[in-house]
Amino acid sequence: MNLIENLKWRYATKKFDSTKKIPLKKLEYLKEAVQLSVSSYGLQLYKVLIIEDKKLRKKLKAASWDQSQITDASQLFVFCHYNERGDEHIDEYIQLAAETQNIPVSTLKGYGDFMKNSLSRQTDSEWESWAKRQTYLALSNLLMASAELKIDACPMEGFEPEKYNQILGLEEKGLSASVLATVGYRSGDDETQFRPKVRKPFERLFEEI
Fold this sequence. Notes:
oxidoreductase; oxidoreductase activity; Nitroreductase
């Protein structure tokens, strides 16, 4: 039942202790948790930027409603989705799957064609919505892994994606910022940590049919 206790412990941290850094070994653990996230078809059509540079984060803070977490946290994770649905993403996945599972690429051609056909049917709006949702699945793994290590985290949608794209040069890479997460260690001055967690009771949240 450690997962439930860890989830009860975590909260969206509003103030971080800027003097505390996440040890490298624990940061690698968080990265592996993100790497192991579920995703539609297993494609992982996103890239995650882990930003420590203070000058860069100061610029990003201005594009994040001036929220202090951006600069005070140990690291800033920026989850980015790909803007285009190019077949090369699927081809790369099929090649990686063949190498990892030690099977001929030809045996996976049917699955590759299925994915290409399925994604090609999406409108541009549907693609963008779908691609963004993939990053939230990865974000969830980051939050749970952070809680397990007693590392504080704050998922953040309060930012200007267009400005992030410009500052980080994402458009040139075919990417757009989807959602953020700051990770580190809570400040003793963060009053939010002392508030009881507010969640709907089971009888209002669930309906068993």
